[in-house]
Amino acid sequence: MTEWIISILLLIGGSFVLIGSIGLVKMPDYFMRLHGPTKATTLGMASLLTAAMVFFSTSQDALSVKEILISIFLLLTAPISAYMMIKSAIHHKLDSIERTQGKDNIEDDV
Amino acid sequence: MRLETRFKWLPTPITSTLLFLVWLLLNNSVSTGHIVLALILAITIPLITSPFRTKQPLIIKPVLAIRHLMLVLYDIITANVQVAILILGPTKKLTPGFVKVPLDLTHSMPITILASTVSLTPGTVSAEVYPWRECFVEGQKPQQRYLLIHVLNLTDEQELIKTIKQRYEAPLKEIFQC
Questions:
Q1: Which of B17, B134, B135, B171 has the highest CB neighbour count under 10 A?
Q2: Contact between chains at A87 and B128 (C-beta distance less than 8 A)
């Protein structure tokens, strides 16, 4: 039973991380490429870590909860790194694709 | 908005609780020795570092904060599925866009939390805060600030602004009472 749970969690996690990476390759411009890795990977990593937690809690005697910490740190750092990257992209005035709406909302750097 | 705690020896209650929990989680044990050590660390580290910190607004409604956290966690899961569908669907149909959301919040720390939740929730990544510098002049009305976000698939700008303001900003305003 636990093996089933672990394998299902691993499959879900793996497919979300894969989808995030596909987004990184497939999207046409820098700003859109950021969306895949910031979101699809957080849930992917979370379920991979849950799988690790279930595995180590059942194969050893003690409950293993360190993996929760890794997920929390990932959740905290993912938006910050995304913000740093998009801010530097705006600073360098990177081109976004033609059909992007509301480009005039971007103000000049102060 | 309140910056000071009631107790002098506990300048940042949330940081202390987090330190306590993280120490126990890192050691993966709840033995008496580790609990005592965690308590000592949780009280002394904020006390020693408090002179270096800028004062941040305190959470005034903790129950609401936990409820908001649960809502955000739920939204993160749905966001992941939505973005996965958008990524796998046809790229040509996506209409990306930049949207400027007017903020009612004025202090940097609630704005940071709002920006992070926006980054983690469906199809949006926060890009910039205008004006970037925080300018608090005593007795003056604080400046109106904007959050610039990049949307992967923009369909209705007004609707999106409304959702962000109601779903994520209003609870934050209440939690920090600002």
A1: B171
A2: yes
AA letter at A1: M
Contact residues, A window 14-53, toward B, CB-based 8 Å cutoff: 16, 19-20, 22-23, 26-29, 31-32, 34-36, 38-40, 42-44
Percentage of chain B modeled with pLDDT above 70: 90
Residues B27-64: pLDDT tens digits?
877 888 989 999 999 889 888 888 887 777 778 888 88
Residue A106 lies in a domain: no
Q: Is the Cβ–Cβ distance between B150 and B101 less than 8 Å? A: no
pLDDT at A14: 92
Q: Is residue A103 part of a domain?
A: no
Residue A6 and residue A51 in contact, taking contact as beta carbons nearer than 8 Å: yes
Range of the domain at A60: 2-96
What is the model's pTM?
A: 0.82
Does residue A85 surpass a pLDDT of 90?
Answer: no
In a domain, A104, yes or no: no
Distance CA A1, CA A36 (A): 32
Q: Provide the domain count of chain A.
A: 1
State the ipTM, two decimals.
0.80
